[in-house]
Amino acid sequence: MSASHITKKLSMLLGLILVPGIALADYTLNMTQGVTAISNDIYGLHQLVMWICTIAGILVFSVMIYSIINHRKSKGAVAAQFHESAAVEVIWTVIPLIVLVAIAVPATKTLLQIEDPSESDVTIQVTGWQWKWQYNYRNEDLSFFSNLATDSNEARQLGADPALKEKADHYLLNVDKPIVVPVNKKVRLLITSNDVLHAWWVPALAVKRDAIPGYINESHFTATKTGIYRGQCAELCGKDHGFMPIVVKVVEQGEYDSWMKGQKAAIAAAAGDSNKKYTQAELMKKGEGVYKANCAACHQVNGTGGGPFPALKGSKVATTGSVADHLKLVIAGKGIMPPFGPQLSDADIAAVVTYERNAWGNNTGDTVQPTAAKAAR
Amino acid sequence: MSDHPTGIKRWLFTTNHKDIGTMYLWFAFTMLFIGGAMAMVIRAELFQPGMQVVNPNFFNMMTTLHGLIMVFGAIMPAMVGFANWQVPMMIGAPDMALPRMNNWSFWILPFAGTMLLAPMFIGGDFLSGQGPAFGWTFYEPLSGQYDKLAFFIFAVHLLGFSSIMGSINIIATILNMRAPGMTLMKMPLFVWTWLITAFLLIAVMPVLAGAVTMMLTDKYFGTSFFDAAGGGDPVLFQHVFWFFGHPEVYIMILPAFGIISQIIPTFARKPLFGYASMVYATAAIAFLSFIVWAHHMFTVGMPAAGELYFMYATVMIAVPTAVKVFNWTATMWKGSMTFETPMLWSIAFVFLFTIGGFTGLMLGVVPVDFQYHDTYFVVAHFHYVLVTGALFGIIAGVYYWIPKWTGNMYDVKLSLIHFWVSTISVNILFFPQHFLGLAGMPRRIPDYALQFTEFNQISSIGAFIFGATQLLFLYIIIKCIKGGEKATSQVWEGAEGLEWEIPSPAPYHTFVTPPTVK
To answer: Which of B142, B318, B358 sits opposite A196 (nearest CB)?
Structure first.
């Protein structure tokens, strides 16, 4: 390796350490105050307990440090021989007890508010999946999935170009489709899971609640400020636990209403697609997008799989196997593969199956239309 | 002693508490380096955003095995090693009460450890991550998805056998084999903390065994303990696990409390302040540890009444823990202190463990826990308690007793470098993790948003320094075993107790005729 090579490598290494420091000095030291009344109460409690601990720490540590400095043999200190005092033991048992009561009283008050989801204005069912979130607006007949944004997903692959992270919009904290809620309205969340445990957490809303398969947890928030609030899954849920962010867009009521209208119109349009006929080229293009968003996390972008996830490239299912079996597998899932039937439209399923049967040299020439996917459900 | 087997047979067949203690300590040390190497992989991956070193599944496998190995392979066996060496010498007994079982409890461990690690190498593709990758808490249903679960389950069973047998042995030794005149309330505090710890182990290891057995039948025999679709409950797993898991935390820290309570009086040249209250505080902590388990699971959606109860019970633990810290401080107060290496580690323990205790109190306050839970704040908390707590206690104990074990003084200069570099780097490693957690970084993620970069880099640098420094510890120990300045039988000027009345190194058999304690 030449000298210039080494210099280049060294400056790259230095760059890795220093550049983010310049570009990303938006780190924080303390908990967010958040944008709900409860998140503010929690922040206040956090400050209270932290200061109590800090003061107690300073007191105890000062005594120890004083003793370490002054009561040392090298300074001629002679050891006293006292070794017990009931009075002292009682005092330093009672004082912490009193401090604990002072913490417990406000903590209890806040907790009882947190555990009261009654009288909500909007109810959203949140379902955790490996590795995405599904949102279902109760009473609105609107349900959709929220995946890690494509730019983040590409940038987070092992060995991806480091520059992609800087370019990605809110790296790892952005989704393809955020949930939208009205400001100053009490939003009730019904949180559950389709497979393993997840936890829905948005720090600014001070909601963190586990998503448990077979059980429904309730939580709620009332955001008092419009804006975009980001969070992540907080309970280890497998391979891509770190890659299922949450984005909540808090908007004025009017904007919320028109968003809801737009969503419903889009659903109606998508339903029309189920009967449409596509060319193979259209399906391949659409299928590649669906594949990257839903399948590549396990089966890899180039279809080679890895670990417990089988390869699709050259696999029986995607080549010599029948289209019907292939559709069934995608729709119903198998083992640790989740069912994609509830997650994808007929057109999406048709497209991704077409894609898998023709990409990476699978070349079956098959074209699968949405009507076939519809029939296979 | 010509009939003693030599070479490998000496170690395979030994029933001598000192040999077995040595093996426990070396096993723990080996595991410390294996688990530590895994921590280095974790910190290397987290050095910067993006995936550079390993894939997400391998990362999860590292966090899982790092936790399991450090808890079950490093900290617990090290503490049992101390018990084996020290309990008989401190109570004036010739050996452990059940020497053959003692041999067996140790020799199960290497097999359990092998079984835990073996799946990593199945299929020959090490990097594809075939080992367990569901977190050291192995929550269902995620752990149920793992296709080599049986390896893990039987490894846990074996570890449980070993711990239970070790505990029975320690209890039988302490209750039956104390020298004449050594009443319970005259026992050194280390012996007391181990007695209480052994009861905790006997109480909770079967619960853990129950949890993994239910996992086993769920996975392979069609039951549905933890599967809601079959009428079970995934949250049941967490209740059972943490009924074991919370006392487990104290199993790791109580013997360290004992070690520190031996060391501080020695170097303060002053009796331990509040001996009786220390014993009662240890017992109180042990009792409370059984009734606070659900504070690890505040976000599972318990009724408010349940959350309130577990909050009140949890913060109560601050009281006996504070009493201990106050007693150590009062022991130092108006003493005549010197600062030999074991004392330095002990003082660092008191400072840093107290920080971990404070964050523990913060985590106990339910509404705020909703923000802290499963973030790096928790990671920082339990590493302050387990690394600067339990591990620092172990290191302090090694420096304190190794002259007695080997007959040689360790290299003082190197030991001071070891202490200062470790203590500074461990804070560089773990303190910034508090900030990461408060800023919203979840634990157990292999990659993070860009605003977490700076503190992760600082933390990783601390980790690399701290990790490398422990190689120096290995060197110091080997050097001390090979030779060095000869230690006197009392070793330390202020040391009191039966173990300091026998020669250094301690003869192979000690107290064949029991001493009399006044």
So the answer is: B142
Cα–Cα distance between B19 and B6 in angstroms, integer?
12
Both structure tokens of B134? 């569901």
Mutate to test the interface with A, among B142, B233, B292 (most CBs of A within 10 A): B142
Distances (CA, A) of B213 to A232, B52, B229: 33, 38, 19
Contact of B233 with A215, CB cutoff 8 Å: yes
Closest CA to B517 of B179, B229, B131: B179
For residue A15, tell me if it sits in a domain.
no
- Find the residue in A nearest to B327 (Cα): A89
Pair of tokens at residue A249: 């867009």
Domain that holds residue A68: 37-74+81-114
Same domain for A265 and A138? yes
Both A100 and A234 in one domain: the answer is: no
Task: Say whether residue A79 is in contact with chain B using an 8 A CB cutoff.
Answer: yes
CB pairs under 8 A between A and B: 306
Q: Are residues A211 and A194 in the same domain?
A: yes
pLDDT digits (tens, 9 = 90+) for B296-333: 999 999 999 999 999 999 999 999 999 999 999 999 99
From chain B, pick out residues whose CB is under 8 angstroms from the CB of A15: none
Complex ipTM value: 0.92
CA distance readout (Å), A218 to A117, A210, B90, B502: 7, 10, 55, 64
What part of A 176-195 touches B (C-beta under 8 Å)?
A: 195
Q: CA B265 to CA B328: how far, in whole Å?
A: 8
Asked if the Cβ–Cβ distance from A83 to B49 is below 8 Å, we say no
Residues of B noted as catalytic: 66, 95, 136, 162-163, 246, 248, 250, 261, 295-296, 321, 324, 443
C-alpha B58/C-alpha B422 separation (Å) is 28
User: Judging by DSSP bridges, how do beta strands A142-146 and A132-137 pair with one another?
Assistant: antiparallel
Pair A321, A192 in one domain: no
Shared-domain flag, residues A256 and A143: yes
Domains of chain B: 7-500 (1.20.210.10)
- A307 residue type, one letter: G
Residues A226 and A129 in one domain: yes
| Whether the predicted model's global pTM rises above the 0.95 cut | no
| Ranges of chain B with pLDDT below 70 | 1-3, 124
Give chain A's domain count: 3
Q: Which two tokens stand for residue B396?
A: 């302090």
CATH of residue A195 = 2.60.40.420
